[in-house]
């Protein structure tokens, strides 16, 4: 059995297969519409995240499966003090696969240790959100045609933004990715990511405070939201949240074939006027996230619809090397 | 040089940083060893260290887990004694996994609320001696124990 705790659980080759499967699903949805007939996905959300939960549910429904679950801790036994491990032992009897979101970091791993079914980490506090990263990779791959030899600008909160940290860790495995880190001094990328991830893997990067200066260099611009809950001081938040606002004037500085991404929801860091620009791809990104989640569900359940479309094994320990999962 | 003639079978832990021997005594759970005789020498003079602590343990070989002290201080030297003589000098390595030795300090970590969960840390960078919580992956750099 295989779980999904981190995007790095998959080797680069396996990610290629996963994205290839997602692309086939996107092109031929009918082929997969009964792949999960009779299977159930449990969405165990200990904190609300409507967008992520609906994305998972949509993925399972499009595969012909069914879903059950809870949308916040108030409506679950967690509010009565039941442990994550107990909940998962019980859910294992109700469903075939589980997506768990939890405010505490490492909760999905604990869940997976006690689960009889594959567990997907659907976000655990500031720690990880692997399916977001898989969606980001798949979006870049399908819109730019490759995951190597391009320049990506990451803009906004690079200090606390787990989406950014996770994306960087995933992208350094590809050759020739150049990172332009755009943030105010207070929200710079932490030194441990610069040293242990970027430099250790020989990735090239530059840091700047100016989005305008960075724009002309970029193949991909990844915008992020500055999150209020990360700040102790409301004044700091108010001052920093409006530091970067992408509008049509700034878009004029960008290349014609650049794409703009955002994990959504946005607050005001991308002005709505940009939505009509063909380079704005954040809604496409949200749509593509469903296909990569479908590919992930199929993979973890060990369901192969088309023998000509390779997919990662759901039993990595039996493979040589025994990929960590 | 202190003699070790008092020990028939057991261990001599030498070059312990002065003042830390009691911590190591508890960490090795020497108080729980029923048939062990333990001698603690504190603040002994040392050419190399100025002052040091020494722990002598008379006990059947294999009854203490030396890995945990590798985490606390891997400069500690261990003489293994059998039939009144030193049969081996062990060098302590940093243990790859620490189970219930240190406690995760990240308040957002699942270990802060989940009952009955072991505290597990994994050595992720032997050079920098960095352990990370198995669950939240926060690095733990202080040399403190539960
Ligand atoms: Zn932790």
From TrEMBL, chain A:
Annotated Aspartate/ornithine carbamoyltransferase carbamoyl-P binding domain residues: 2-141
Keywords (A to Z) from UniProt: Pyrimidine biosynthesis, Transferase
Signal peptide, first to last residue: none
UniProt keyword Transferase, yes or no: yes
Reactions catalysed: carbamoyl phosphate + L-aspartate = N-carbamoyl-L-aspartate + phosphate + H(+)
Family: Belongs to the aspartate/ornithine carbamoyltransferase superfamily. ATCase family.
HAMAP family, sorted: Asp_carb_tr
Name assigned to this protein: Aspartate carbamoyltransferase
Automatic annotation (TrEMBL), chain B:
Pfam families recorded: PyrI (PF01948), PyrI_C (PF02748)
SUPFAM superfamilies found in the cross-reference section: Aspartate carbamoyltransferase, Regulatory-chain, C-terminal domain (SSF57825), Aspartate carbamoyltransferase, Regulatory-chain, N-terminal domain (SSF54893)
UniProt keyword Transmembrane helix, yes or no: no
GO molecular function term, any single one: metal ion binding
Domain Aspartate carbamoyltransferase regulatory subunit C-terminal intervals: 98-144
Domain Aspartate carbamoyltransferase regulatory subunit N-terminal span(s) in chain numbering: 2-92
Cellular component per GO, a single term: aspartate carbamoyltransferase complex
UniProtKB keywords: Metal-binding, Pyrimidine biosynthesis, Zinc
NCBIfam families tied to this protein: PRK00893.1-3
Protein name per the record: Aspartate carbamoyltransferase regulatory subunit
Keyword 4Fe-4S assigned: no
A biological process term (GO) from this entry: 'de novo' pyrimidine nucleobase biosynthetic process
Organism domain of life: Bacteria
InterPro entries linked to this entry: Asp_carbamoyltransf_reg_N (IPR020545), Asp_carbamoylTrfase_reg (IPR002801), Asp_carbamoyltrfase_reg_C (IPR020542), Asp_carbatrfase_reg_C_sf (IPR036792), Asp_carbatrfase_reg_N_sf (IPR036793)
Record organism: Candidatus Weimeria bifida
PANTHER family found in the cross-reference section: ASPARTATE CARBAMOYLTRANSFERASE REGULATORY CHAIN (PTHR35805:SF1)
